[in-house]
Specification:
With 299 residues, the chain is of the alpha+beta class. Helices cover 44% and strands 16% of the residues. Helix 6 packs across helix 7 and helix 8 packs across helix 11.
Length: 299
């Protein structure tokens, strides 16, 4: 299936995965190497509409996720959230399993609406997880294989089983990260807001949309975020706009004016000034520096 280019960076839906006769429209599992060979454009910068987990069983290389580069090797788990721009550089012998799923998969779970907002990954700086024991590595791989079988199963309750297996897989991955300290109410709400901002960002959505998603008023959310982070939500929203601008400057051929318009700016000068204040670079200078740095690496 062709990428959706409405945002100028290739954006792929879950239907790009095979098999297409999966029992649940919200989940697909397949061989990573087969998908990459069938769709070599996935080596270049792109993003997905869905959550993606990749378990490497062989090979080495790097994955670039939103301007951060991570080394990867066998028995590494790569976790990607919807909208994150990423590109791959892998050795010829790479192999693995890839899982893609939409958030709606968890509509079957009672009380699961905030599930992803509580997880300590799917966020900046935590795209790769390396299990600390061989036993955990085997268990993660086993769960991928079970999900692969269930994704094409016609057995009763297959969708519920998929949901349970994904939950187990994410929980195992969570346990491999350093344990976080218990957080106060404001800190928990602020963290959930930042996760929501990362997973479902839309340029023109006001703070009230995020407050409604989190089940609080906009005033309460604003106060909690300011107390917890020292910065009002508006600053975080503007920072998220800058990240999206960087993505489009780096990975699309849209002009600065077109990018500014797409992100809600009234004119190119307004966008250019805002970007320069945030990054100390003009949009054109950022694009040129990024492409010069990576022109031979991420083709």
């Amino acid at each position: 299936m062709r990428a959706r280019r409405s945002q100028a960076i290739p954006l792929f839906p879950l239907d790009e995965f095979r098999p297409r006769d999966a029992s649940d429209p919200f989940l697909r599992v397949g061989r990573f190497e087969e998908g990459m060979q069938r769709m070599p454009h996935r080596f270049r910068a792109h993003r997905h509409e869905f959550f993606e987990l990749i378990w490497l069983t062989r090979g080495t290389g790097e994955v670039q996720v939103d301007f951060q580069t991570y080394s990867v090797a066998s028995h590494h788990l790569v976790v990607l959230a919807p909208g994150q721009v990423h590109a791959w550089s892998l050795s010829k012998d790479f192999s693995g399993v890839v899982l893609g799923f939409y958030r709606e998969l968890f509509s079957l779970m009672v009380g699961a609406t905030d599930f992803f907002l509580e997880l300590p990954f799917f966020e900046h700086g935590r795209a790769v997880i390396q299990p600390q024991s061989a036993r955990t590595a085997r268990e993660i791989y086993r769960l991928f294989l079970r999900l692969q079988r269930e994704s094409v199963s016609e057995a009763r309750g297959a969708a519920r089983m998929q949901c349970a297996l994904v939950t187990e897989l994410l929980t195992l991955a969570e346990r491999e990260l350093p344990e976080e300290k218990e957080q106060a109410g404001d800190d928990r709400l602020a963290k959930r807001f930042l996760k929501a901002l990362g997973h479902g960002f839309k340029a023109r959505e006001p703070l009230t949309v995020y407050a409604a998603q989190l089940g609080v008023s906009a005033n309460h959310l604003g106060d909690a975020v300011k107390r917890s982070t020292g910065r009002p939500p508006g600053e975080w929203l503007r920072e998220r706009v800058v990240l999206e601008a960087k993505r489009l400057l780096a990975h699309s051929d849209l002009t600065a004016a077109e990018i500014g318009y797409a992100l809600g700016f009234s004119d190119a000068a307004y966008f250019g000034n805002a970007f320069r204040r945030a990054t100390a670079q003009s949009p054109g200078a950022f694009r040129e520096a990024f492409r010069k740095k990576l022109q031979n690496r991420w083709r």
